[in-house]
Amino acid sequence: MRRREFITSVCCGAASWPFAAARAQPSIPVVGFLSSRSPNESAGVTAAFKQGLQETGFIEGQNVVIAFRWAEGAYERLPALAADLVNLKVAVLFSAGGPPAAVAAKAATSTIPIVFSAVNNPDRLGLVASFNRPGGNVTGMSTFIADVGAKSVELLKELVPKAAVMAYLVNPSNPTVEIYTKEATRAANGLGIQIRVLNASTESDLDEAFSALAGLGATGLVVPGEPFFESKRDKIVALATRHAIPTIYGFREYVTAGGLMSYGASLPDSYRRGGIYVGRIIKGEKPADLPVMQPTKFDLVINLKTAKTLGLTVPQSLLVAADEVIE
Q1: Are 157 and 208 found together in one domain?
Q2: Could you tell me the CATH number of the domain that includes residue 321?
Q3: Do 69 and 215 sit in the same domain of this protein?
Q4: Can you tell me the distance from the alpha carbon of 56 to that of 280, in angstroms, rounded to the nearest whole number?
Q5: pLDDT tens digits along 24-44
Q6: pLDDT (0 to 100) of residue 145
Q7: Is residue 294 assigned to a domain?
Q8: CA 63, 54, 48 angle in degrees (round to 5)?
Q9: What is the span of the domain harbouring residue 29?
Q10: Which of 85, 123, 125, 264 qualifies as a cystine partner to 32, CB 3.0-4.6 A?
Q11: Vertex 164, ends 163 and 165: CA angle to 5°?
């Protein structure tokens, strides 16, 4: 057998054996995991999802199989990936990576239970009838990205008090982009700040967006929670460092990767609670009876080393307010 043929046969066998085992033992449910993001940068949240499953008695490889499908930031791939999971007849479909994956999952099936993670305004997107009574086959974890974006502008202004122009990076492919852009703009106007919206849905777009900062006169940048951006987290942090632009992000993971500051809910906690909902549904509960869960705590994280690199002095008021300070 040729080496390439051997490798292919091994890879295919490794990928398919859990599903063959599940089919051989009907009692083992298969959970579909549909993500807008990439597997490497999602290791932490994937572990949190598995932890949630384990809290309800399900352990991958023992009494549950997880079928992963990754769009790697290319949202146009999501409908086909969702259809593939539906064809597998998964017991529950978990949509990871915000609104794009959730919308694709809902379009793919009206019968398989769906649990989404980190979706802003799921009711306005038509995913659920209401937070308390979702109805249908969909429920999950919500976020307040619109409100967080507005608060992020205020925090960045406190750190860079002379900022008169700030940039706001968005992915126009995200169905909720108008909602949080509007809220951020309103908050900025109240502080006498002009907001310049930068669009990016590809890697080359990110390079162009950061190159445009100087021409816009922006002295601050807001990067809200966005699955495509999470899939390119290291690149975005590197660009912010290269262009020496004070930046606030939607999730802590950016700051631990070298970013300046973040404000938002815990993404791993959203996935963990999503795993709990998936486990409860496997046990017989219905999505229609499980209210959409909302975050109760928002963390401010500051990286003092990055602040020093940018020549910024973090005011005492922010240090006192911070939930975590990285030195």
Answers
A1: yes
A2: 3.40.50.2300
A3: no
A4: 7
A5: 455 899 999 999 999 988 999
A6: 62
A7: no
A8: 125
A9: 3-143+266-289
A10: 85
A11: 95
Q: What is the pLDDT of residue 18?
A: 53
Tokens of 298: 């928002």
Other beta carbons within 10 Å of 323 = 12
Q: What is the pLDDT of residue 64?
A: 97
Tokens describing residue 174? 């995200």
Low-confidence ranges of the chain (pLDDT < 70): 1-26, 144-146
Give the DSSP per-residue string, 160-227. STT--EEEEEE-TTSTTHHHHHHHHHHHHHHTT-EEEEEE-SSHHHHHHHHHTHHHHT-S-EEE---H
Predicted local confidence at residue 121, as pLDDT: 84
pLDDT tens digits, one per residue of 53-71: 999 999 999 999 999 999 9
Helices (H), the chain: 3-24, 43-55, 78-87, 98-108, 145-159, 177-190, 203-211, 213-216, 227-231, 233-242, 252-256, 267-282, 304-309, 316-321
